[in-house]
Amino acid sequence: MELGPTELSHDYLDLDDLFTPDELAVRDRVRTFVDERIRPNIAGWYATATFPRELVKEMADLGLLGMHLSGYGGGGRSAVEYGLAMMELEAGDSGIRTFVSVQGSLAMSAIAKFGSEEQKQQWLPRMATGDLIGCFGLTEPSAGSDPASMATRAVRDGDGWVLTGTKRWIGLASIADVAIIWAGTDEGIRGFVVPTDTDGFTATPIEPKLSMRASIQCDITLDAVRLPTDAVLPGVRGLKGPFACLNEARYGIIWGAMGAARDSYETALRYALERRQFGTPIASFQLTQQKLVDMVLEIQKGVLVALQTGRLKDAGKLRPEQISFGKLNNVREAIAICRSARTILGGNGITLEHSPLRHADNLESVRTYEGTDEVHTLIMGRAITGIAAFGGA
């Protein structure tokens, strides 16, 4: 007797048994939110390149903003709980998950890790409630994978600082209230807390885009932005500061990519069971079954990678090269899954009625930001061989 589409269709290895009741409760709350608020609307938001600002307070009420940070309004949730939330959000859309990542893992994390007590008190509680939005300015037009070559400079001027330079691909910048800007100084690279209403700060959305259309990415111009002395983040100097924040965001991507992959697979499975050709559901054809099986293999393995990474993070044992393992593998496999799912949908798969091609397009951005495939490959290569292969000859 054939099983048909049972729970094995979605959790072949019974991976839910590896999670605690509290972890599953977090997942299910976010899944319900995605089903009710994102799925019915995402095609429209994507088509019109609209970021749904009305969701910000709703996500804050769910405890998603700074949910893995402790104190100052943070949720104090575990890394695994945070990861599960990111997986469910990205099953809705990568752009929505990116908002939570920029707000919590980048902007809030920078202040929480390296800010003064005054900075934490001033910004974090209202960022956790969604009353204030943050952004994180590291990448520049000519400094993406090589942030050490950034041209943005901050110079001391009397009792303060003056920032001059440009940043590119900065999520949320045009709607942000505060920006964490990384700049070169005579003391090395430093981070600065910059209210976005400061004279000389300009954020311009990058349009049109073929990816992340329900999200916002911007160019930032810093034209002699004058800041007080206490605008600098006192807790760090050098690239280890922004890299620590990037690793927080990269960790969330490991989970999020599997959400996009899972949603694409489930969409393709439903379609294959309903769509009939040559008098039979296309799910009955061997080639279609092979595609579905390959998707299940990689999704289940990817969730296991994410879970082990999360357990290591919660235990305080996670190394940067292990984050690179997960980011490289899970995003790469998720793109392949989304593209394969699109082929099962045939011509209908290029419409916004179905999610796989939208997910695949979004994941092209996810594949690039927070470290390209090439960068994470070289991070792993250095860990394996002990030889750094970054940079040209």
UniProtKB/TrEMBL annotation:
<keyword id="KW-0285">Flavoprotein</keyword>
<keyword id="KW-0274">FAD</keyword>
<feature type="domain" description="Acyl-CoA dehydrogenase/oxidase N-terminal">
    <location>
        <begin position="20"/>
        <end position="131"/>
    </location>
</feature>
<dbReference type="Pfam" id="PF00441">
    <property type="entry name" value="Acyl-CoA_dh_1"/>
</dbReference>
<keyword id="KW-0809">Transit peptide</keyword>
<dbReference type="Pfam" id="PF02770">
    <property type="entry name" value="Acyl-CoA_dh_M"/>
</dbReference>
<comment type="pathway">
    <text>Amino-acid metabolism; lysine degradation.</text>
</comment>
<dbReference type="Pfam" id="PF02771">
    <property type="entry name" value="Acyl-CoA_dh_N"/>
</dbReference>
<protein>
    <recommendedName>
        <fullName>glutaryl-CoA dehydrogenase (ETF)</fullName>
        <ecNumber>1.3.8.6</ecNumber>
    </recommendedName>
</protein>
<dbReference type="InterPro" id="IPR013786">
    <property type="entry name" value="AcylCoA_DH/ox_N"/>
</dbReference>
<dbReference type="InterPro" id="IPR009075">
    <property type="entry name" value="AcylCo_DH/oxidase_C"/>
</dbReference>
<comment type="pathway">
    <text>Amino-acid metabolism; tryptophan metabolism.</text>
</comment>
<dbReference type="InterPro" id="IPR009100">
    <property type="entry name" value="AcylCoA_DH/oxidase_NM_dom_sf"/>
</dbReference>
<dbReference type="InterPro" id="IPR046373">
    <property type="entry name" value="Acyl-CoA_Oxase/DH_mid-dom_sf"/>
</dbReference>
<dbReference type="InterPro" id="IPR036250">
    <property type="entry name" value="AcylCo_DH-like_C"/>
</dbReference>
<keyword id="KW-0560">Oxidoreductase</keyword>
<dbReference type="InterPro" id="IPR006091">
    <property type="entry name" value="Acyl-CoA_Oxase/DH_mid-dom"/>
</dbReference>
<comment type="similarity">
    <text>Belongs to the acyl-CoA dehydrogenase family.</text>
</comment>
<dbReference type="InterPro" id="IPR052033">
    <property type="entry name" value="Glutaryl-CoA_DH_mitochondrial"/>
</dbReference>
<dbReference type="InterPro" id="IPR006089">
    <property type="entry name" value="Acyl-CoA_DH_CS"/>
</dbReference>
<feature type="domain" description="Acyl-CoA dehydrogenase/oxidase C-terminal">
    <location>
        <begin position="243"/>
        <end position="384"/>
    </location>
</feature>
<feature type="domain" description="Acyl-CoA oxidase/dehydrogenase middle">
    <location>
        <begin position="135"/>
        <end position="225"/>
    </location>
</feature>
<dbReference type="InterPro" id="IPR037069">
    <property type="entry name" value="AcylCoA_DH/ox_N_sf"/>
</dbReference>
